[in-house]
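User: Structure with flavin-adenine dinucleotide, tokens only please.
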Amino acid sequence: MSEHSLVWFRQDLRIQDNPALAAAASAGLPVIALFIFAPEEEAPWSPGGASKWWLHHALSSLADELAVFGVPLVIRRGKSQDVLRALADEYHVSSVFWNRRYEPAIVERDTAIKQRLKQQGVHVQSFNGSLLFEPEQIRNQSGKPFRVFTPFWKHLRSLPVEMPVHVAEDLLIPPVSAAESESLESLGLLPSIHWDKDFYHHWDPSRKGAETALQTFIFDRVGSYKTGRDLPGVEGTSKLSPYLHWGQLGPREVWQAVQQTGAADGAGGYTFLSEIAWREFAYHLLYHFPDTPEQPLNQAYSHFPWQPDGVYLEAWQSGLTGYPIVDAGMRQLWKTGWMHNRVRMIAASFLVKHLLQPWQAGAAWFWDTLVDADLASNTMGWQWTAGCGADAAPYFRIFNPILQGEKFDPDGVYVSTWVPELKKLPARYIHQPWEAPAAVLQQAGIRLGKDYPKPVIAHQAGRERALAALSANKQINLAEQA
Ligand code: FAD
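Assistant:
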């Protein structure tokens, strides 16, 4: 058997702009393309239900793309270390290449694997395929990680973003014989109960889908992104998040596409690039503060007096809180695996403030239901909302879900789409149906409390409870310091 190179695909499920694959192609040896499904190694953050749905299709798309060049995608289940070692032995693998991941459990695992493979005499090289810059590359003037976004963004803008890596596909040499592979179906990534049926109407989870989404955004939406991004009732954002998470698109490809069309000079393009930088900031925080998926970055919130309550949590999860904008978001999430960013902020705020549920409970639900569930961005988003993260919204700033709805969904288009039982209500009542006169409700065919719930908690009562919890937290901290 002749020597082989091995590319270990992980969250970089693409051919182009894939530095690990480029290195394998230029090594001039037959290439084994490998994906290992090892959810146990990612616990407690192994992919949730919606993520697994996406992963299934992304793998299928990658396998099709590789097959064009005669390279089969080998799929294995099991301990990554063992799978790699077995393949390295069987195929005389002299080099293993992968693109880095930054989740704490994965960093630990990969470091150990790298060491073992090296001991076996295998050359191992890892690359940055998922970020514009390595988290280590960006430091403030005192050499410390940034904790505030604006200076982070200013610093990032001063650095040259590398061009996407060109992969010379014609240099890819198929392996001498196909390695044994499990079937994609055998991984059981698709649900047995078909809660995913609507996902197919909303997504094309393939590389082609990623390219189309990027092009559509750049040609149709980027110009109005600055204002459009806040309106959940219009298609104003890129919906690139799941493609970026699974690496069907690299951030450098996105960055370059925006620059090339000149869109970066407009307000929309500039704002959009700053959002890509928020993603970088999330990874920067996760890497430097690896406890944050479970623990607040701001220790003053370590003993916050949450009031866990299964009934409240379930009302929120099911989109039955009685607050239309919150319920619309939660139902959009359930039906499509995605929720608009503005509504993520409103729904998350409602959970951690009005309902006083721990942010970790919300993060866990998003983890299971989002197709773009991403440990870095999800952790940052929830800690931001709960006031305990880097550069977070202060806890005392409590979103009013009625005013937020009226401001960002003034005609009720978003609510009507996801909470159809309210669609006959006039716009002036759609964000607070309990204020509608009985005759208006009757005409709209709504019996409050039957067809649509009454608010689980009154806005003012929820606000006061949240502020009281914040005061109690201050007392807890003072008592601890005494
Ligand atoms: P666009 O507005 O088109 O932005 C382009 C890209 O920039 C996104 O695809 C994403 O990669 C990045 N981006 C945009 N906003 C943010 C942000 N606030 N933080 C980090 N990256 C951002 N995003 C995830 O990708 N995965 C998550 O698990 C996730 N959980 C979140 C939880 C909460 C509570 C909140 C408030 C936000 C969360 N976000 C998460 C961030 C944001 O909501 C999504 O990235 C965005 O809605 C994705 O839609 P889009 O691709 O159309 O975004």
